[in-house]
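I am going through a labmate's work and have reached the protein record below. What it holds is a sequence and that sequence's fold in token form. Please read both lines and tell me whether the tokens look consistent with the sequence. Do not assume that whoever made the record got everything right. Thanks in advance; the entry in question is below.
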Amino acid sequence: MSSKKLVNSVAGCADDALAGLVACNPNLQLLQGHRVALRSDLDSLKGRVALLSGGGSGHEPAHAGFIGKGMLTGVIAGAVFASPAVGSILAAIRAVAQAGTAGTLLIVKNYTGDRLNFGLARERARAEGIPVEMVVIGDDSAFTVLKKAGRRGLCGTVLIHKVAGALAEAGVGLEEIAKRVSEVTKSMGTLGVSLSSCSVPGSKPTFELAADELELGLGIHGEAGVRRVKMATADEIVTLMLDHMTNASNVSHVSVQPGSSVVLMVNNLGGLSFLELGIMADAVIRSLEGRGVKITRALVGTFMSALEMPGISITLLLVDEPLLKLIDAETTAAAWPNVAKMSVTERKRSRAAPMEPKETHDSATAGGVASKQMVLVLERVCTTLLGLEEHLNALDRAAGDGDCGTTHSRAARAIQGWLKEGPPPASPAQVLSKLSVLLLEKMGGSSGALYGLFLTAAAQPLKANTDLPAWSLAMDAGLEAMQKYGKAAPGDRTMLDSLWAAGQELQAWKKPGADLLQVLTKAVKSAEAAAEATKNMEAGAGRASYISSARLDQPDPGAVAAAAILRAILEVLQNQGV
């Protein structure tokens, strides 16, 4: 069975892809009758060398993404993973020649079909009197012994586009550009690794890998590599790759040694997530710098893909200052990244965290009666949440993730750890503020953020007073913050339902002569009833709002947890005879 692709037709996919790129980029034009893209300002290149490249489609953004001032003049695209037609290559050469350019350099990756077709077009153009030179790029560092076909052309070709483009823009002549980029190629190496293959539109994957295998040293056309290795960590894979491509016994190695200066490319082969790409880039930089290599520039992204192949290639180019200036030269090519013109190595990568504001301590001392009572309350809350872990997880599985209990247990353990460090502050406002920071850092998920918001807001009214009206105002402030940022409302089947019900009962604390325990007892019963009632509600907020209400026949776990916390507080205060 062939793989699924978003195409109009298999036969027309290469044409459609190139047309789409040109349609979105006013700086490009298609050459009528050919799968060729050219700079739209072609006539402005009179007297300068034109640069043409290309190859099979499926390597996007290569090569058309690198058309622009300071890089390529045009690109000839073949079908997916197929060399472009000789007639189209010749038409592109004629087009740039007739625009008054001072000769054409063909930049060709080292594959038999590309060499043959570009070479034949070159000979025909030269027979017509058009000055044309051709450089064949082979930067593959996979093979340990010399192959008759030579090193394959891989992502390093993009760096050659950049160097040649900068030279052409500076007015350097055709033969000199050809000579200089040929020398640069000798100081470059690329190696790829992939988690699986890719599939040409209309076809099956080109090779199969076991679930615990990686393919090392593969090309960009879905062909298998030189070695299969077992899955490993990102750091281990990068070490393996760098060891292979810099090993002097490897005939295709790149001579990177301690003290070398390099331009680094970490290239997404098409299907790797940006998360993994960042992890691999970090691993490459750490490994190279650990070997004493200076990374002058780091390019990370998708430059030359192999359709949807989930892997990366690493390219290392040895550079000196003159070559680095060519890499840094301006270009309008859409796919060339905006790279900072400064060294990656020896740069400070972090700054000190901001200082915490100084705490204002009240006259009450930590460890007093109020502080000891707070410890008892917090310990009971933690014990309660830990005991509910499995029950809350079971309730939460209806919404898909099933981690509500785990999240609350993580909060409970964080609070227990904090209490072991010493008595909490005597000030309730400081306690709530401390708990807010702790839960935001340790609890995680939306629950951590919501509790953090609640506690941060609730702490504010308690700074001035800690009587019953102030505690009622604290509840009001916490609920308001949760609604403002969480966007939930009473009746949405969230933890807010329990807290809101309790908050309505706690309004009685604002009345003169209110009884703490009587009001709190009513508040807890209302919270528990509200939590139970959530099983009949349709979720209006949170992850559960995406689940069919028919599947939500249990109470909301967040509401159950909030009610349980209030019950634990009440029980401690009752036992203390407050």
Notes: The two ends are 73 Å apart (CA to CA).
